[in-house]
Structure formats: structure tokens, C-alpha cells
What does this fold into?
Amino acid sequence: MNDRFLRACRREPVDRTPLWIMRQAGRYLPEYRALRQQVDFLTLCKTPELAVEASLQPLRRFPLDASIIFSDILLPLEALGCQMTFNPGPKLAEPVRTRAQVEALTPRPSADVVPFVGDAIRLLRRELDGRTPVIGFCGAPFTLAAYLVQGEGKEGFGAAKTLLYREPATLERLLETLAVQMTDYLRLQIDAGAQAVQIFDSWAGLLGVDEYERFALAPVRAIVSGLRDRNVPVIYFVNGGPHLIESAATAGSDVLGLCWRTPLDDAARRVGPGLALQGNLDPHVLFAEPDEVRRQAARVLGRMHGRPGHIMNLGHGILPDTPIASVEALVEAVHRTATQPAVEATA
Ligand code: CP3
It folds into this structure.
């Protein structure tokens, strides 16, 4: 059993820093694009055998230290009655903007509506047979609300921020419903065999500190406390939030995932010793030459050198046009730290 990822989540000593990559299954892999020629994205997510195939693809190429179940953060919202399409980004059949629409969203057991996610996790665990741990995931309530209110991905998510200031109680009600549904959804994944879970707060960085604490952090805390009896590590990823690090560190998670904007040693000082950190190579580094990828990766690793509890990752999801050779260079740089101390790169 490769348990370096789980050990790092718990801040236990490891032989080398574990590595996985956010969005590691996806369009930068030719075999993923081939799979998508055969089947549309939603069918891929909803067919356990195919979702497991997508999860396994990056692991066949790269010796990564964790796998993540193949799905999307928006998909479990079908349990609330929200219909959507992907092309490739999500589009809701109807944006949720009024108090009446929010009140009409009623949490339902994930096991009834998205049973395929549990089935896929069970199958993935069986296929991996202990080679790597399996991560389950969900979107954080504010990030999900940003899509639900806007109806699609849109820079700035103005509709959600407008609702926040015009009708804060309506947004809060939506966030509470999402927190209940996501707690149930993560419990389903853990009970199916997910050995850690990650909560993606991709759009938390759109908020100032006070708004973040009320509208993004509070519902994440509710989810994390609803998972405590399951006893698996929880990773909370906050994108675009250098100003939110101290607040985000109080979510109750075991690991704080950081975007690429803050140096990890700076973040480590700010959060104190009680949290593991995950990240945070800028995804665009992977468009540089392999030598530069190795140098930049060594720089990130060097910032956490000697501190227990680092999971190497990008600072946001891997981009669709990323060259395979860059991922290989990243893996190599991380593996190299097993035998020789990371050197502080010269800038
Ligand atoms: O390996 C993995 O991590 C795959 C599972 C996964 C997907 N989406 C598959 C996917 C995960 C963990 C996600 C998370 C997700 N989805 C987030 C949080 C992470 C982040 O990047 O901030 C967000 C915001 C979404 C919403 C979403 N879904 C967008 C914006 C898009 C379109 C553009 C894009 O980023 O790819 C999707 C579609 C989607 N989700 C694809 C994949 C592989 C592409 C669909 C296709 O094959 O056409």
C-alpha cells in the first residue's frame, strides 16, 4: 500500500513528498480525448466502468501517489433537482436566483440520485488494490452557488455577488441547503471507500475576508464537522485566496490546499503547525521547458523542506493543452527529493 499521501495529510513522516495533480484525469491526455470521442461527458461520469477508466488513465502514465474519482463538482446538484449540460463548461437549465427557487431545492439522499459515484469508488478501490489511495470530492457551497446563481461559469460571477449584497438571507439559505447535500454526498463517497476527500472552493477568492467568512467558510465548516465521525482526512482547496489563508485555516480541515499565488513557507508561517499544506506550482509552469519545470518544482518543494505535512500539487487544475513531457518532468523533480535534499533554486 502506497500511503505517503495519507501520511502527509496527517503530518506524519514520509520517505518523499507525495504528488497528485488536480484535474489529473482530463483533456491533456490523448487517451482521455479518445474516450470522449466515444461518449459524452455526463455519460462518462455516470457509468462507473468508464469513470474508473478515466481515473486510472493518469496513473498508467505517471507514478502519482493518489487517484481521484472521475466526476464533476456540479453533478451531485442533480440531487437538488438542478439539470445541467457540459460544453465543455457547465450550463444550468435554469439559474437559481429567487427566494422561491432556493426554497424549492430540497436535499435528497445522494444514494438515491447519484448512486453511480459510490459504485465507481468501490470499483476503483478494487482495481487499484492498495496501489494508491482514492480521493473523493465535492464543490464548496459558495463555489457551487456561484454556478447555480449565474447559471454558468462567468468571470467574476456577478450574479452571485449581486445576490450576496441584495438578498444575503436568500444566498445563506441556498448555502445551507448545499452544505447539507454535500455532507451527505461526501459521506456516501467515504462509505463507498474514499480514503480522503477534497472540497474545491474554486471561487472563494472573489470574496473579501468578511464576506468569505460568512458565505464561504461557514458552510464549509458545517460540512467538515458533519464528516468528523468518518475519520478520513479532509482537504480544503481555496483558489485565489492569499488574503483568506488565516480564515481558511480555521475550516477544520486536515489539509489546506493553496493556489499558486502564495509562497508555501509564507503560508506555513501564517497557518501554524496544525495543518498540512497542499500545492502549489502554477499550472502555467508546465508550459515551460522540462528543465524549467524541474527547477520550479524544486523551488516549491524547497519551501516546505523539513516541514512534515506537504502534498505536492499544482496551485489549480492542470490545463487542457499541458504537454505530457512537463508532467513527467514534475514527477521526476518530486521523486528526486527522495534521495537528495531539495536545493533552493536561484531566481
Ligand atoms: O482528475 C480529475 O480531477 C477529474 C475530475 C474533475 C473534473 N472536474 C472533471 C471535468 C474534478 C475534480 C473537477 C472539478 C471541477 N469542475 C471544479 C473545481 C476545480 C477547478 O478547476 O477549479 C470546477 C470549478 C468544475 C466546473 C467545470 N467542469 C468546468 C469549469 C468545466 C469546463 C472546463 C474545464 O475546466 O475543464 C467542467 C467540465 C469538466 N469537468 C471536464 C472534466 C474532465 C471537461 C469535460 C470534457 O471532457 O469535455
